[in-house]
Design a protein that fits this description.
single chain, 496 residues, alpha+beta, nine-stranded antiparallel β-sheet, 7 helices, 9 strands, elongated
Length: 496
């Protein structure tokens, strides 16, 4: 009998030792329950550096660097504009003083032309600003479109993650409620009630039966806890992901709002500049017409005819490009000559050939030119500027309409043009190359008639045109240019 009781007692001790970890686990779980419950509540997730401050700081530094560059450019423009405004004010003051005596003076016209130049500079700045701002607007529109697409995509992702989170939380609630109920039961019953239930068994069979029941319940509790913890981990992960997406969404929305505000500001800037451009152009047209009228009256009085100084720049550029293309396509005398002198005899023959040829080949004799209008040597406008300071690529010889215009040196006629603007009726002659190998071309403009054709060979002093006042001209004169390799030089250096 004693042996039977001893065996039963040993069985209880062994069973309890086996069951103690389960009891301890249940007790530990009971203590963890409050923190688990706290984790179940909604809490804000701090955005990591990857999506927060670090990125913002880096972008901020780049923006700051660009802002410094933009600030320096803006400061430079403001200084230029300020200087132009001061110059305009000084010009207006001077014009007011000069007007008291007479407007038909070279000084008044020069001052008016200077004012026109200042306004042109202002227009250039404003138009460049508009071009730059428009380029920025185009880039900004691309960014806005990209961010709007990004915002839509992120909004859809946030909605999708929120739906998944809502479903998980609903699923979790039932498991969590069951788990809380079990914790409550376990807390009320206590671990010693379980031991008492085992010890109070009358025999080993009853003890084992109760043990299996308690073990089964404990296993069920453990599985329930594992499911609770697994679902909580998944919910936390989803919630962190959702918070991250929301942070990205807020950042994109804020950036988009800033970009749209910047867009409005730039559009207003262009509109303001455009209004100012229109106003200045209207004023400029009035001043140009006044300048041309006064210059025509002045040159008519003193017979010092020249060009009007306010010709359309686009027309001038088009004419100049055509001339440059023509000169660039001219075949030099060296390219046209295939024979190379190898000894003194050949060199002598080559020299004799050059003297008889239509153009010069590597000889500075080509630069010894005669005046284009014989007996008219007085210059009304010199090289490289008019008296107002505006560029003038040649020299002007006022002369009676129909005066002879002659070739300044022998050569070949390479172009004949009859325009109602710019050079008017003009001729260009190719003379060959100087000692340095530079091509030499002369130009004669504003003629009333042209007496030669393209390809004609002309001699030095041969009449090629009659003077006049065609194109951009205030009265009859000959505009004469010398071009070396296409570049204009001072003709006076080569006239004798």
């Amino acid at each position: 009998m004693k042996t039977k009781k001893l065996s039963f007692l040993l069985a209880i001790i062994m069973t309890l030792m086996t069951f103690v970890p389960t009891l301890a686990f249940a007790k530990s779980t009971t203590k963890q329950a409050p923190s688990t419950t706290a984790a179940h509540s909604v809490s804000a997730v701090t955005v990591t550096d990857e999506f927060g401050n670090a990125v913002t700081d880096e972008a901020g530094n780049l923006v700051t660097q660009q802002a410094e560059v933009d600030s320096q450019v803006q400061k430079s423009l403001e200084e230029q504009q300020k200087e132009l405004e001061e110059n305009l004010a000084a010009a207006d003051k001077k014009l007011a003083e000069l007007e008291k005596s007479s407007k038909v003076t070279e000084e008044y016209i020069d001052t008016l032309d200077q004012k026109i130049g200042y306004v042109n500079d202002q227009l250039t700045i404003l138009e460049n600003q508009n071009t730059k701002v428009q380029s920025e607007i185009d880039e900004l529109m691309v960014k806005i479109n990209d961010n709007e697409k990004n915002l839509t995509a992120l909004s859809e992702e946030v909605d999708a993650v929120q739906s998944e989170l809502d479903a998980l939380q609903a699923q979790f609630q039932s498991v969590y409620d069951a788990y809380c109920y079990r914790l409550k039961v376990m807390y009320i019953s206590g671990e010693f009630n379980i031991i008492s239930a085992l010890i109070s068994c009358k025999d080993l069979s009853g003890f084992l039966t109760r043990y299996e029941m308690i073990k089964s319940v404990s296993k069920s509790d453990s599985e329930l806890l594992a499911e609770v913890q697994s679902q909580m981990a998944e919910i936390t992960m989803k919630k962190d992901g959702l918070d991250e997406k929301r942070a990205q969404l807020r950042a994109v929305r804020d950036e988009l709002d800033a970009q749209k505000a910047d867009l409005v500001s730039k559009q207003n800037s262009i509109e303001k500049n455009s209004q100012e451009i229109a106003s200045k152009k209207a004023s400029l047209a009035t001043d140009r017409a006044e300048s041309d009228r006064l210059l025509a009256e002045l040159t008519a009085q003193n017979k010092q005819y020249t060009e009007f100084r306010n010709e359309d720049s686009a027309l001038m550029e088009a004419v100049e490009k055509e001339i440059q293309d023509l000169i660039a396509g001219v075949k030099t005398s060296e390219e046209a000559t295939t024979a190379v002198a190898s000894d003194e005899k050949n060199a002598k023959k080559e020299s004799e050939k050059e003297n008889k040829s239509d153009v010069y080949s590597k000889s500075d004799a080509v630069l010894n030119m005669t005046y284009p209008v014989p007996s008219y040597h007085l210059i009304s406008a010199g090289y490289p500027n008019y008296s107002s300071g505006k560029y003038h690529g040649g020299i002007d010889f006022p002369c009676a309409t129909g005066s002879k215009v002659v070739a300044a040196q022998k050569g070949i006629v390479i172009t004949v043009k009859r325009l109602d603007y710019s050079y008017g009726y003009y001729v260009m002659v190719y003379h060959g190359t100087d000692k340095s190998g530079r091509s030499v071309v002369t130009l004669y403009a504003h003629n009333s008639s042209i007496l030669v054709s393209v390809g004609d060979t002309v001699k030095k002093g041969q009449t090629i045109a009659k003077s006049g006042s065609t194109g951009n001209s205030t009265g009859p004169h000959c505009h004469f240019e010398v071009r070396l390799n296409g570049g204009r030089v001072n003709p006076k250096n080569y006239l004798s």
